[in-house]
Design brief:
This protein has 344 residues and is α/β, with parallel strands linked by helices. The protein has 2 domains: 2-138, Glycogen Phosphorylase B (Rossmann fold, 3-Layer(aba) Sandwich); 158-336, 3-Layer(aba) Sandwich (Rossmann fold), CATH 3.40.50. 30% of the residues lie in helices and 16% in strands. Strand 7, helix 8 and strand 8 form a beta-alpha-beta unit. The relative contact order is 0.12.
Length: 344
């Protein structure tokens, strides 16, 4: 059984997609799973033991480029028994169709009849969680999803982790608090930098060190957090936003004794690394894409206008995050304690 997965375009979604891969391996232990996805996702897929191969998809999000999709499809002819599509777009169905893969499975969306021949109709009440919508595609239409649900689990190699520690001159002589203050989705997911700074200050005063992770766009907010720390405390933090590759960020986050994150891709990475995690929610809901791990505390206000799932606040006040004070986050960290770093 050779299966091609057309993967999602977001970090968090790719992490959660591992639940599908795990279900496929449970159902077909000898199956071979390849994932067609953007090149940036390779470090995630390489840390998933269920995936045989990551196939780089060269087109940007939203690009049609029919000729390129045709060439990719023709290069895959005869290699797979089934394709499973996680995006609901018409474009995502073209490569499996051009490849002539016998069984092409996905949820109904964007006029994909003919491109897919195993089309499912999504019942959002039956499958409220994104992982349920992913996992259901591993089974026959209408079948129940076996419980308990699997959890994403990224595997870390000690040697590559140590290389990253050495490259950035990082030490594990003190507990590590990781902060993830960015969110690719938009401002409505970003807890204010001044609140993050208060959490950082509280933990540094307890003898911790602070590492900040995110994209290059998040580097200024990382600096804003550090700038709010008084001299003597600021030196106990390091802003790695935009400095690391995704592979290095994953390996270094595995060293965390605790993580505080917005609802973002890195939140799901931290959960898949089984790090003690405080997840801060504003405009979105943990009822759809919760972090999937044991040691998790969800902190949110749940004011009247949230969750709205808007990228920017329609009222301009961002109260769902601005009014969420640092104290409940610090208290959540205390409840979590810390668990030893485990490296395979």
């Amino acid at each position: 059984m050779r299966i091609l997965i057309v993967g999602p375009s977001w970090v968090g979604d790719m992490v959660m997609a591992q639940t599908l891969f795990q279900c496929l391996k449970q159902r077909y232990p000898q199956c071979e799973i390849d994932v067609l996805a953007p090149e940036w996702s390779r470090p995630i897929l390489e840390r998933m033991p269920e995936v045989r191969k990551a196939l780089s998809f060269p087109l940007g999000h939203g690009a049609l480029e029919l000729a390129t999709r045709w060439r990719i499809g023709k290069s895959l002819v005869g290699q797979y028994d089934q394709a499973i599509l996680l995006p609901n777009s018409l474009k995502s169905a073209l490569v499996p169709f051009f490849a002539g893969i016998p069984k092409r499975t996905g949820w109904r969306g964007e006029f994909r009849y003919g491109l897919l021949n195993d089309v499912r109709t999504l019942d959002k009440q039956r499958y409220p969680l994104m992982i349920e919508r992913f996992m259901a595609l591993a089974y026959d239409s209408g079948a129940d999803i076996p419980r308990p649900y699997p959890r994403p689990t990224l595997q870390i190699d000690a040697a590559t982790r140590d290389v990253a520690l050495q490259k950035f001159d990082l030490s594990l002589d003190r507990p590590v608090l990781v902060l993830c203050p960015g969110a690719e989705f938009g401002e409505s997911k970003r807890w204010p930098s001044e609140h993050y700074a208060k959490v950082a200050e509280a933990k540094v005063r307890e003898g911790w060190q602070v590492w900040l992770f995110g994209s290059k766009k998040d580097h200024p907010v990382g600096e804003a957090i550090r700038d709010r720390l008084i001299p003597g405390l600021r030196e106990e933090s390091v802003n790695l936003c935009g400095e690391t590759s995704l592979a290095e960020a994953i390996d270094l986050m595995s060293c965390a004794d605790a993580v505080v994150s917005n609802d973002s891709g890195l939140m799901h990475v931290a959960a898949a690394l089984n790090r003690p995690l405080v997840a801060v929610y504003g405009s979105t809901s943990p009822g759809f894409t919760p972090p999937l791990a044991e040691h998790v505390e969800i902190v949110r206000l749940g004011i009247e206008c949230s969750p709205c799932f808007d990228r920017t606040c329609r009222f301009g006040h961002y109260n769902c995050l601005r009014l969420l004070e640092p104290k409940p986050v610090v208290e959540a960290l205390e409840r979590l304690g810390g668990t030893p770093v485990e490296v395979s």
